[in-house]
Design brief:
Oligomer: single chain
Number of strands: 13
Strand content: 15-25%
GO molecular function, one term: DNA binding
CATH class of the largest domain: Alpha Beta
Distance between the termini: 62 Å
CATH architecture of the largest domain: 3-Layer(aba) Sandwich
Largest sheet: 5 strands, mixed
Radius of gyration: 23 Å
Number of domains: 3
Order of helices and strands: HHHEEHEHEHEEEEEHEHEHEEH
Shape: globular
Number of helices: 10
InterPro entries: LysR_HTH_N, LysR_subst-bd, WH-like_DNA-bd_sf, WH_DNA-bd_sf
Structural class: alpha/beta
Strand order of the largest sheet: 4-3-5-13-6
Domain HTH lysR-type: 2-59
Family: Belongs to the LysR transcriptional regulatory family.
Protein name: DNA-binding transcriptional LysR family regulator
Length: 302
């Protein structure tokens, strides 16, 4: 029977793809770690790692085992934290992923949460939607504020919408686009525009709208950060499409225009459907989903 310790050793090597670094992370001698991995491979009758010229890589069987190992080890931690929560009140740890455009709103919620539950340790990662979905399914994070809802076919994830918000066009105040109140998406054809990485949910919304309008802008810059996009737009280097709350927040001056047709993003709060939330996570989910809108909401006056 495979033990949790064997899975921990296997997970360490799979993450590092280096036996010495994995041994250091597990505080075990490297020969002993190698022996444990060989023992696991003999038990399973499978090769889990390819070892060639001092390089280590996962075999297909190893990749499949890693998915199970991460989920099992995450469940063990969750069981321990849930039992601790039952005996000692709401305490333990929650691991969160967050979309960049939601960080200001999430920070306000976390202030309330941390004051209410000071014995809970909060870990927060800023990620794109693709990364957060992978980490939710792998048990590496407990909940995430996604920039777009998960696919309906994904039954391993529970989610609730967090409101909706228009996406608007920003440009330098002295530019042609920056002086307009409304801009048809088709008018972005040939314009200098700031792009976002293809894994971004906002990028997918923008790309779809541009394609539908038959517009092909000149993508001069790519950025992962809305603050960077606003700084570039402010000085007239290119226009950018951002959430309305980003456009109207204090910062470099920009002209703000409503896009026609209006583009809207609908972020969501997501968590695992296959693992019962521990008390600390349940308290966070309740706080996020209770009360008023998480986002500023629709407002035509920009």
């Amino acid at each position: 029977m495979i033990t949790s310790r064997q899975l921990e050793y296997f997970q360490a090597v799979a993450r590092e793809l280096h036996f010495t670094r994995a041994a250091q992370a597990q505080r075990i001698a490297q020969p002993a770690l190698s022996q444990q991995i060989r023992k696991l491979e003999r038990q399973l009758g499978l090769t889990l790692f390819e070892r060639n010229n001092h390089q280590v890589s996962l075999t297909p069987a190893g990749a499949a085992l890693l998915e199970h190992a991460e989920r099992i080890l995450a469940d063990i931690v969750a069981v321990e934290e849930e039992m601790l929560g039952w005996t000692s009140g709401v305490r333990g740890r929650i691991r969160l992923g967050a979309a960049r455009g939601l960080m200001p709103q999430l920070a306000k919620t976390l202030v309330v949460y941390c004051r209410t539950y000071p014995q809970v340790e909060v870990e927060l990662r800023e990620q794109n939607t693709e990364e957060m979905m992978a980490d939710l399914l792998g048990g590496r994070i407990d909940a995430a504020t996604l920039a777009a809802p998960p696919q309906r076919a994904e039954r391993r994830i529970e989610w609730q919408p967090l409101g909706s918000e228009p996406l608007v066009l920003i440009a330098g105040p002295d530019t042609t686009l920056g002086g307009r109140d409304r801009v048809p998406v088709g008018d972005l054809d040939g314009q200098d525009l700031i792009a976002y990485p293809p894994q971004s949910a906002i990028a997918a919304i923008i790309t779809g709208a541009l394609a539908e309008a038959g517009a092909v802008p000149h993508l001069r810059f790519e950025s992962r950060e809305y603050t960077t996009a606003r700084a570039l737009a402010s000085v007239g280097l290119a226009a950018a499409v951002v959430p309305r709350s980003v456009a109207v927040a204090p910062g470099p001056p920009v002209g703000v225009a409503v896009l026609e047709p209006e583009l809207v993003w609908t972020p969501a709060l997501a968590w695992s459907a296959v693992r019962r939330p521990v008390p600390a996570l349940s308290a966070f989910l309740d706080l996020m989903l209770a009360g008023a809108e998480f986002l500023p909401g629709d407002n035509p006056d920009v």
